[in-house]
Amino acid sequence: MSRRTSGRTVWNTVGVALFVIMVFPIFWMVSTAFKPDDEINSRTPTWFSLHPTLSHFGTAIHKPFFWVDVKNSVIVVLVVVAVAMVLSLLAAVALAKYRFTGRRLFIILMIGIQMLPGVGLVIPLYVVLARYHQVNTLTGVIITYLTFALPFSVWTLRGFVLGIPKDLEEAAMVDGSSRLGAFLRILLPLVAPGLVATSVFAFITSWNEYIFARILLNDQGKQTATVWLSYFLGTSRNTDWGGLMAGSTLIAIPVMIFFLLIQRRIAFGLTAGAVRG
Amino acid sequence: MASAAETVPRSRRRSFSWRRFARGAVPYALILPVVSVLGAILGYPIYSLVRLSLQQYGLFELIQHKGKYIGLHNFGLVLHDPIFWHTVVRTIVFTIANVGLTMVLGTFVALLLVRVSTWVRLLLTGGLVLVWAMPPVVAVQVWNWITNYQNGILNYVLTELHVGNYFQHDWYATTFSQLGIVTVLIVWGALPFVVITVYAALSQVPGELVEAAEIDGARPWQVFLDVTMPVIRPVLLILTSLSILWDFGVFTQPYLLIGQPAIHPSNYLMAIYLFEEGYFKNDYGRGAAISLLMLVIVAAMSVVYVRKMVRIGETE
User: Fold this and answer.
1) Which residues does residue B69 pair with via DSSP β-bridges, in sequence order?
2) Is the pLDDT assigned to residue B9 strictly greater than 70?
3) What is the pLDDT of residues A27-38, one digit of tens each?
4) Which of A220, B9, B57, B260 could share a disulfide with B285, CB 3.0–4.6 Å?
5) Quick check: B274 and A256 CB within 8 A?
6) Which residues of chain A neighbour B48 with C-beta distances below 8 Å?
7) What's the average model confidence in pLDDT over B226-240?
8) ∠ CA A179-B315-A170, rounded to 5°
9) Which chain B residues are within 8 Å of A155, Cβ to Cβ?
10) Alpha-carbon distance A50 to B227, whole Å?
11) What average pLDDT does range B173-197 have in this prediction?
12) What is the overall mean pLDDT for chain A?
């Protein structure tokens, strides 16, 4: 028994050490954001500041275009999530509840598109959107994000729709509801948690996206939050690490909150099929 | 909408009826919106990708909205460009290193999660989820700060731990070191997904079997190879293929961490090569040819994964 206990102590120690290493960059980001400049630029680091300051957050949000670009990000994300959820729920129902000719092809498309490296489509999307004068507009970015949000959402929602017991739906139809009525009254409330989880995931991927936003949006007042952050340092020689870390913290926080909320569900949605297959 | 239960076998319903036709059309009506949106916004760019790759298409043509057909000239240029081949080799080596590290470390941490006490497991999983949530652009900026040569914490810690004298060490001095730092960033960011997925798969390993093997005197690595491995192999296969695809096409981390001014043919990865040669130099035709070549390589690599997932989708 004592061997078991000591073995566990070793593993626990390794586990805690790993936790510290993994989380350190996030801790360092937040800790730096609250530190006064002299502590940041000192050669000996301060782990926890005893004189925390909010001034870097002030610098970050008053930097040109912060609010405009955050607003742009929010608009893009909301439109992408709304459109993707409505369209992909319909397709997910078709995949989960019906057998039809072309189903296999549709599945291949949904998975294949997710495999396309986004960067491979940057050039033609840029040229096509330029032709229709959609470069430098949020519409172009929204359209582009949909190509990646849709297949993912269809595939994940399919898993959630499958999880609904068939008897429930059939019971409703025996009661005399039409198929559409059954869909609305039984399926929708049951699939709602899955819908929330999937939309949060679509939210996060759109919020985090960089390369398409970087290429399709050139005007500083029309960019998204991640592009804003990537230009934060500019070309100045004296790096404002405090401001950069404060801006980073502000952009990471919404994502972290959402992720903690849905983490269990989405890990299930992504892996359930894989484990069972 | 038809209201009869759909369990009626097809063969029994012989005569044509509008009701049956309508029911058969339902799934197509349901997938139509997604198919048409994807067709419009993906089909056309893919078509124009092929067309662009056969054209002389620069800034002038972009303004004119009209390219000049030059056949396979762009492909010839790319395939005769030694930078292309060096980049392909560099990206393959980079991908192998990144995927290898991610999968080995990920499996190790997942196995560790099974062995630790509950509070450590919750702590570590919580930390992993936080890392998972970090937007790549934010992670890059934090890495920038940690590795900066003047007062980055990495140099301080390495010097204090007596690993060596890292005082004002420049991590971005050589290609090897640049891509090494990028690898650390990518593996750090990719670990949570791999660990949590493998851990979920490990919960399917029958505990009695492991115990029986241990009583029979099997060594830990034998138990892992003979009992655990067969159960988690499908998950490892899927994760490996996904990681290969992601790491082969990675752009944000290397581009922003190395920094545009320091990007150079000697440290190109595939996606950066495409971006610099096609977009940055306004040579969209050649960029399209590079894209197509890259898509072909990726498609060849993803066959295994797509086939596996399609099987799952069909059996359910």
Assistant:
1) B55
2) no
3) 999 999 999 988
4) B57
5) no
6) 124, 127-128
7) 85
8) 20
9) 313
10) 52
11) 93
12) 83
* Partner residue opposite B41 with nearest CB, options A28, A111, A143: A143
- Of A45, A104, A256, which has the smallest distance from its Cβ to B156's Cβ? A45
Q: For residues A176 and A244, is the Cβ–Cβ distance under 8 A?
A: no
Backbone angles phi, psi at B281, to 5 degrees: -95, 10
- From residue A12, alpha-carbon distances to A5, B110, B201 in Å are 10, 13, 21
In terms of CA atoms, which chain B residue is nearest residue A263?
A: B129
- pLDDT (0 to 100) of residue A97: 80
- Please give the average per-residue pLDDT across A225-234, as a whole number: 87
Rounded to whole angstroms, what are the CA distances from A104 to A76, A164, B296? 32, 22, 22
Q: Which of chain A's residues have a Cβ under 8 Å away from the Cβ of B2?
A: 179
Distance from CA of A135 to the nearest CA of B (A): 12
Q: Which residues of B touch A276 (CB under 8 A)?
A: 312
C-alpha A163/C-alpha A93 separation (Å) is: 11
State yes or no: pLDDT of A230 exceeds 50. yes
Whether the per-residue pLDDT at A186 is higher than 80: the answer is no
Three state DSSP letters for A35-93: CCHHHHHCCCCCCCCCCCCCHHHHHHHHCCCHHHHHHHHHHHHHHHHHHHHHHHHHHHH
**Prediction ipTM score:** 0.85
Q: Are strands B68-69 and B55-56 parallel, antiparallel or unpaired?
A: antiparallel
> Which of A14, A116, A143 has the CB atom closest to B112's CB atom?
A14
Residue A166 CB-density burial (10 A; 0-12 exposed, 13-18 middle, 19+ buried): exposed
How distant is the alpha carbon of residue B290 from its chain centre?
A: 19
Give the separation between CA B138 and CA B123, rounded to whole angstroms.
Answer: 23
Specify the DSSP element, H or E, that contains A235: none
State whether B315 and A277 contact (CB < 8 Å).
yes
Which one of B117, B188, B294 has the shortest CB-CB distance to A12?
B117
Q: Is the pLDDT of residue A277 over 90?
A: no
Q: What pTM, to 2 d.p., does this model score?
A: 0.85
